[in-house]
Design a protein that fits this description.
The protein is an alpha/beta fold. The chain is about 35% helix and about 20% strand. It has helices at about 45-55, 75-85, 90-105, 120-130, 175-185, 220-235; strands at about 5-15, 15-25, 30-35, 60, 115-120, 135-140, 160-165, 190-195. An eight-stranded mixed beta sheet has the order 1-2-4-3-5-6-7-8, sandwiched between helices.
Amino acid sequence: MSSIEVQQFTYRHGDVELSGYLAQPSRYPRAGILIVPTIAGPTQLMFDRARWLASLGYSAMVCDLYGEGVIEDIREARKLADALRADPEYYRQRFRCALEELRLRSKLANSRIGAIGYCMGGEIVLEMARSGEDIAIVVSFHGLLATPVPAKRGTIKSRILVCHGRADPFVPPKQLREFLEEMDIAGADCHVHIYSGVLHGFTDPASNSKPVEAVRYNPSADRQSKAAMLNMFDEIFEKNGTPDHE
């Protein structure tokens, strides 16, 4: 088994300097995975997820949202997020830069790339899929599902997995229904896993210490959503043309 290598570095989107964190096996990564963090930015939990994916054979990069590090004040984070979202094409381009950085820095001998995101990061990876980015799979964990630029028929190239807490007040039932209709109209290959009674932020144990009642960790939904992601990775990222488990 190869060892895990970790790099921390800076990269740029125009005149904005951003920070990256890459964990990957020293030899033969199975695929590259871009990890897009929550509205708070790249936390230690995201770095832990990158190392976990590296231990499973993936080249995993945590990207940066704003170039400001971790934003502890949620009001400040929302201001930065709103400014980034104001121009949908600029918003998408911020993450195309991160994808290019992953391709450049990883040890991949293939072009297989996926992207996963949490909360705002889940929104972002869905935007990347909507824009027709050449990504094999995007996975949204408790991500926001609305968009100012819905996908057109035939645009989406990625397979999509959405892991959603049914009790998440940030994604009301109407938003979920509209997302499903959008995916049907676009002809997307989209799986949606819904966890009954589960709130926003269900993959982060630190959610339980937050004062916002809408945000709570759920160990079962966390485990099941991770398992769903890895099962789809097994299906999509094959070795020598054969799924790993065969």
